[in-house]
Design a protein that fits this description.
single chain, alpha+beta, five-stranded mixed sheet, two-stranded antiparallel sheet, 9 strands
Length: 149
């Protein structure tokens, strides 16, 4: 299963030169549930040459990557990759930008407030079990609507 980007299969030519990673969305086709995450395009690599450690960056496993979420990985393993659509939403030019965009997207879609989203936490700090059914999401939406004009 290939990554999609703006309605077409993602090719190396479509990846911006300065991109360090991307924000992605997985869609589980049988239920329509979705998952938002981030993935770096490269990873750190160390090797030794002439008793010196040489640090470089090499391509990560992004081409075969599905998720870091144990729940999503289990679902992919049980159901198969053909039950999912993998889509790159946006590329980021720095790790900081990548982290910010992931959190922004997750908070904006209310990922922890709905069973529609497969995300169970945000940056391993905010958990769905602490949010879902414990907050009045309609009141939150009303307050947000009143302050965002």
């Amino acid at each position: 299963m290939t990554w999609m980007y703006r309605g077409s299969p993602l090719t190396d030519e479509l990846i911006p030169d300065k991109a360090v990673g991307f924000i992605y969305q997985l869609t589980y086709l049988p239920t329509g549930q979705q998952y938002i995450g981030r993935k770096l395009l490269t990873k750190a690599h160390r090797r030794q040459k002439n008793k010196k450690v040489i640090r470089t960056r090499v391509e990560s496993d992004w081409r075969e990557y599905w998720s870091s979420s144990p729940d999503v990985k289990l679902l992919v393993e049980q159901e198969g990759t053909d039950k999912f659509v993998r889509e790159v939403l946006m590329f980021a030019n720095s790790k900081g930008q990548l982290n910010y965009l992931e959190e922004k997207f997750l908070y904006c879609v209310g990922a922890l407030e709905s069973e529609h989203w497969l995300n169970s936490n945000i940056r391993s700090k905010m958990y769905k079990r602490n949010i879902l059914n414990k907050l009045d999401t309609e009141e939150i939406a009303s307050v947000l609507h009143s302050i965002i004009k």
